[in-house]
Amino acid sequence: MLLFLYVTVIVWKTSHLKKETIQMEFGKNISLICSNHTWSELVFQKWSIWKLGIGKCDIEVLYNGTIKDNCTNNPVYVNSTNPHLSISNFESNYVGKYSCEYTFNGGTDKRDYYLWGVHYINHTFGENVSLTCFHQMASNDMVTKVITKLKYEECVYTVGKNQILNQTIKSTCEDRKDFVIDIKDGWLHLDIPGFQLKDVGNYTCETRYNEEIFKLCYVLSGYPAITTFLTADTLRYCVVPAAIVILILISLAAYRYADHLRRAKLSRSSQNC
Known about the structure:
Distance between the termini: 123 Å
CATH class of the largest domain: Mainly Beta
Oligomer: single chain
Structural class: alpha+beta
CATH topology of the largest domain: Immunoglobulin-like
Order of helices and strands: HEEEEEEEEEEEEHEEEEEH
CATH architecture of the largest domain: Sandwich
CATH superfamily of the largest domain: Immunoglobulins
Number of strands: 17
């Protein structure tokens, strides 16, 4: 009986790790719940945040509402009255792992959130597109795959730090030699020159780090450059003459309608005589 109670206490006190992956659309707000316990039951709460290309920081919250925060480059907010972490206007810099460990009256527990990003882009045909991936110089262990899915075609770029230094990026995108993998200030970019209808599709940046996967997906669509038709020559030789023709047609229609009314009035007058 004593052994059973001892085992029960050990299981009760041992933390249980919960994991959840969330795909967040850019520009949206999100709140991550660390615990269902209220602050009256909690003793301590700690958020360990690791973002791709930025690094790690911690936010500690005590039961009395005291907050210790070294996330200087991470504008996140922990509510001191409710146990959750809020992120406003989600963007690529927020892609990463958010771990929360908390202590309450009955023991400890931990929850991991993996935030992936989804960005919908409607771009003008004919213009260049640059899709930002992740910071490749953050670690030697990071390996990134840029996966493009265009209609029924799929190709992959595999990029690691050593490949960047040696300029030996692996690729299965032989049919899309117009795509360019570029490094700007340590950030990995996929450049699409002269965006066209054939380039419409999904572009996924998948990064592996410490056996964990992080993804950033771009859903790319397009539209014609309407503004190119509204040049000075177009206005002079097309729009203005068309407007003049329309005004003439409207005037002729109004004249015919007025003539029709006049004839009808004369007809009724003759019948009355």
